[in-house]
Amino acid sequence: MTKASEQSLAAGHIQGDVFQFFLTxxxxxxxxxxxxxxxxxxxxTAMPLTARSHPSGAVPGLPPPPAAFTGRRTEVRLxxxxxxxxxxxRDHQPGVPVMALAGMAGVGKSALALHAAGEAVxxxxxRGGAVFVDLHGHGPAGRVEPAAAAAQLLRSxxxxxxxxxxxxxxxxxxxxxxxxxxxxxxxPVLIVLDNAFDAGxxxxxxxxxxFHRVLITSRHTLxxxxxxxxxxxxxxxxxxxxxxxxxxxxxRRSDPxxxxxxxxxxxxxxxxxxxxxxxxxxxxxxxxxDPERPLxxxxxxxxxxxxxxxxxxxxxxxxxGTGPAVRAAFDLSxxxxxxxxxxxxxxxxxxxGPDLAxxxxxxxxxxxxxxxxxxxxxxxxxxxVERGRTPGGLERWSMHxxxxxxxxxxxEEPEYRGERDTxxxxxxxxxxxxxxxxxxxxxxxxxxxxxxxxxxxxxxxAWVEEESDNIAACARLALDCEGxxxxxxxxxxxxxxxxxxxxxxxxxxxxxxxxxxxxxSGGDAHTRLEMLLxxxxxxxxxxxxxxxxxxxxAALGAADPGAEPEQVAMIRVALGIACKAAGRYEESAEHSRxxxxxxxxxxxxxxxxxxxxxLGNALRGAGRHTESVDVHQRSxxxxxxxxxxxxxxxxxxxLGNALWDAGRFEKSTAAFRRAEVLFRAAGDKAGQIxxxxxxxxxxxxxGRHSExxxxxxxxxxxxxxxxxxxxxxxxxxxxxxEMQSAEDxxxxxxxxxxAAALLRALDERAGEGNAWASAAAALWNQRRYxxxxxxxxxAVLLLEGEQQEEAVRLLAGIRGVLGREExxxxxxxxxxxxAAALLRRKDLAxxxxxxxxxxxxxxxxxxxxxxxxxxLHRAADLFGQAGELRMRGCxxxxLGxxxxxxxRYAASESAIREDLGICRTAGDEPxxxxxxxxxxxxxxxxxxxxxxxxxxxxxxxxxxxxxREEDAEQVRIRVGEYASxxxxxxxxxxxx
Length: 992
Prior knowledge:
By secondary structure, the protein is mainly alpha-helical. It is about 65% helix and about 5% strand.
């Protein structure tokens, strides 16, 4: 008789939520009505857009380290030792989770941190993922504030924009809470905070948890942090030489200047670069561009340049922020540029943002875009600019801080000052026209020439999304530069509504406050009013609506009695938005009514529609649902009269919410469906997502789960097209839950497999594991046990802690059912062995062993004894390697039974006797009794009747002592048969 596993799960229907959260992070995909009320009624009624999944500055995953990274072996080893998981159990307390790298500009801190972080991620040490934030500690656009960085981190960790608080304290608290959730789920995250200015900028972002790790780079030693400190020094000449040699070999493997024969010369060249990687790469770029140039020529030029710089600088520096080595390298590179390249290089430093598109560079230079792209490619080859990509795949260009500083210095030389002013004016004009084109497209205006317009609303909104940081930076620059304030006013008046979606709330409040101050001191009355309204909208969308109400009331009270009625109406609309955000619904409704009356009198139908929209939302907030529906229906009709399908889509969206609250389900869902169609026609995928999200949520609440799942799947497809795999996976979880409620298990399986592929690409091990566990549970509920085995094994492989234990229990149940399979044993065997092959990991040896044990038993039943013996032998070895002797004994017992059937009696006796010894050592008397019985069977089959009788009597006596008299009696019968010469195993019903 064989021994079975002690783990079991009865076949049947799994109750409860089998569709687990894919991501260990907090899931937001299933929330109905993901549009915050305060964001639904902006002045232009622009639908709030879903936040881009990776705001600029925050990157899920890691940017690639420089391709030419080499050296730094000691520092890399220290960093990897710090990042390597050292815990031996869940309660282990690791050391300080923060390491701060400090060193001068250009020394290679970021490259070192990214190289080590990339190695750690590749090793699978951070199941919760890795995120990167550039804090711009020394950038031209100003430092990233802690709250803004926290918001970027939360979005990169998968939270939707609607779930990221806007208040500074709230967003920092949310980050700490989210990191704690991930920590408890044993999903450590690696956070790289690059280019920090000081400890105060990073301290609020640090996790107070056990398993996360943080790498910080800064030009200053952050000694006040509770962190390990690593000083990144300049490279030794030999190490610097390897950087140059590697760069030369990457370009031309046969380049003799990178060979050992010229090693000493390369070392001299590296020494002249001061051991700074940035200078080394610039010099290497000069050499790569001219493969015939001797190293000695460049050494002479570089030596002369250094001597001149040191003579000119009493402190030995070559300019602010640069040493003579770096400055000399830049000088040589700059001297090799032609006039057009040098001009582009100088004026690029005028741009205040973190990166820029080729179109913006073309505006700075006054040259065509196609020519500008060629210019940028040449500058990139010289290592003077860096090429990158936005999360949406668009090409961007940036400069290292030191390079930017050098370019700015060059641009401030007397002969180039005029070109700098001209470039700034062209840049601001470029952004002002683009901003006007956005508003023209969104509001169907006709105030922009056709050649300057966007081709679609979707293109216009996408441009704002990608350029929002640069737009805000340019507006700040314009406000700071006398004579350019008008450009800032243009940007804000045209894009304030859109910027609310993308810019940090507090940063936008600061920008609009500064604009308001400038307008108050020098602008006309209309501009002052527009800046006031923009500031009010910014406050309303930063969870500070009471402040907005206060300043807007003051503006209303101070309005000139002779002011144009439309100006007063604008204040009323803004007050309506702010009052609604503050929960003052009746006051909000009253302001909107006044605005509607004014716009009706002066014949401004589009603005009247905005006010109608705000009134309907205020009435909905007040619980006056019938009135809200009536107002929103009027708004929809007004949009149709205007022939504005895009505005109608927004009005239908709000009508759908109002109809649902009024209990008119069918009309509500019809409104959302129509809104989605119109958003699609306008090319606004974000609007589609909002309409479908509410449609799905309401359908789910109404119990129409299959339709709800279809809506969620449509959103997932949109997010897939937008290149947002994390958002797609979250939404798939919502679709899966609806399919689960509909008991559409085949649909759940398909969803899980799609999500698992996404999460694997995101390196979300825990999320992928949960997706496979959910697939296995759905297959179990379909009674497709063989198909469930491999997904369940994948879940066991990927998960940790309690989640892994749940997957192990499910796998044990699958194994138990498959072990009893009679109709399709070959399929069951294949499934068990495929799952076992997947779990070939030392810490999972026990689970692999049980799978092979079950497969071995099934193989023996199928008459495939040789294969059975092989699998049972492997199971016994696996249990032994894991130190699980009782499990090893179980497999050995089963192996002994199989070997007896193969007439390999000596091997059978040996296996069973080892099991017998294990049982006796462990005090396992039931196991000992069964082993004695099986040993007796083997001895009898081998013709050793006397030994079989004696062993069988021991088994019968032990069963009797255990009060298992029925088993004892069956053994006594078999003992009698041994004595009479009956064949072993000839009777059924043997003890188990």
